[in-house]
Amino acid sequence: MFQLELANRITASPGEKDYSRLSAVMQYCSDVKPVADIKPHLFFPKPAVQSRVIEVSFFDTPVSSCEKEKYLFTVIKAAFSKRRKTLKNSIAGDDLSINREEAEIILKAAKIDPVRRGETVNVEEFVALAKHAWNYTREDRW
Description:
The protein contains 6 helices and 3 strands; from the N terminus they run E-H-H-E-E-H-H-H-H. The protein is an alpha+beta fold.
């Protein structure tokens, strides 16, 4: 059970106003869905917030190695760090050690429009983006 606003952030889909880094990371490693809303009058003392129960079903098999998973989380972080910027501008920089031209090449290889924003990218696209960025910047392949 979480405060309603946090539950909304965890379960938000790409393009929704509550979709965030937290949403992407949680949905990468689990299936999340709302179960029930709990009204404040059901508690004593009555809280000033609403609550929601969500179901989190973690996936059994890790998708990749810890190092590559950490890199994926760095890509997601970079995409959301400059929320109103395009993906090309968000992922270029120190976090991933790539410039804007390289960012555009990587995004196109991942079949993601460079002018999209991080809050529109779904988990599968983030994984593809991380794989292409990893392969572009390292000799060992994903």
